């Protein structure tokens, strides 16, 4: 789910980058007859962000770490269930003060597990966002290079259009270069 949000942001950022690259200066002292005709290139940002080798590696690492975290969390939750069950059994034999203390301790354990879960989730999402940002940055640089090589002064995201002449589409060239320049990106999650 987080990955799809990131992809949508990446697509929007690329459109803005393309517009920024192609936006002429609007100084008042320049005559309008010097404006160049647009030379357009189109790139499928979503395809590149999904199919780049580095993106696939990041996704695989993300899923692997997520599964590891889920197993750890399941183990912690199992311990909590056992503690809760034991607390229920002790209700009839413990004094009210002792029971209240044990309940507070249990609630403290629940709070710590919840903090651990949130911390791990946040760390994993941040690591994913940082790794995908590296892929995105590389893609944008390559898109700029390809645009210069082809003389394009306007690069648009493929997702914005229903029909596009294949000669304008530079997606495959960009994808190939991204794979060559950035074969993999490490998903780095800080130790907790």
Automatic annotation (TrEMBL):
InterPro entries according to UniProt: Chaperone_Skp (IPR005632), Skp_dom_sf (IPR024930)
Superkingdom field: Bacteria
SMART domains documented for this protein: OmpH
Signal peptide: 1-27
The entry's keywords: Coiled coil, Signal
Coiled coil (residue ranges): 59-93
Pfam families listed in its UniProt record: OmpH
GO MF, one annotated term: unfolded protein binding
GO cellular component: cytosol
GO BP: protein stabilization
Family label: Belongs to the Skp family.
UniProt protein name: OmpH family outer membrane protein
The species this protein was found in: Azospirillum brasilense
